[in-house]
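Structure tokens please, single chain.
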Amino acid sequence: MSSSLTDPAFIRQLDALNLLARRVLRGSLQADRRTQRRGTGITFADYAPYNFGDDYRAIDWKIYARTEELLIKLFEIEEDTTVYILFDCSRSMASKFDYARKLAAAIGYIALNGMDRVMVYGMADKLNTIVESARSRSQVFPFLRDLEGAQTFGVDTDFSTCARTFQARKGKKGVVLVVSDFFFPKGFEEGLRFLQWSGHDVFALQVHDPADLECPWLGDLEIECVETSATQRVTISEKEAKQYREAIAAWNDSLKNECARRGVGLASTTSDVPFDVVIQSMLRKGGLVA
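Here you go.
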């Protein structure tokens, strides 16, 4: 049975994770993100000659006293991070949908408490908006309620098309977290490549139902695709069951290798592991980093 994302007990778990994030990551989901642009932040970056029109308050008078040269201090602008969550809403996620939703809620909760911006999109055969934009602690409950209202949809999963649609909608670079089982019929390589090519920092959070990893059936069966409803008659022996397990392991290994090759962060879990344990592990490893 699914549990509410606004349940007080769940909020207390999110609060505990947020405290850990503040302690481990000093308040931000990711390492401090500073732009190369110069502005009026608090972190000193460089000096530049004073020109007419510059803010005279930025002049370093100590240097002027020594060199009689007017220089102004430049500071790094500290920008908020936009965290995009691409949440797999295909029907193959049904058995672990509530669990994956808790993981997405925890990431979003920590980001919002760190004053980052959060947007959530549902993926299946197309891209749907779940949370258009949320920023600041005041948006926590609207964010959780919108996420709670998300449902599975579609008749297939097309990660590449969803990644292209996402980039067409959102040009601003940010952190992209893909929450999915990564069982994409057309593969995951092109979608990951496109997200990275667009300049985002990409992190993959793979979620399995333990039942995904096994083939419990034997004999003559008619199986039905959970997404397309296509049926097929098959005969499954111990040999085919073993081949299924090997195919799943090979698929997951290929995802692991692709992420490592591209420098994409990856965390994999099964839905029988408490969600807060998964988030704690991610935080202690440095957040959403490769």
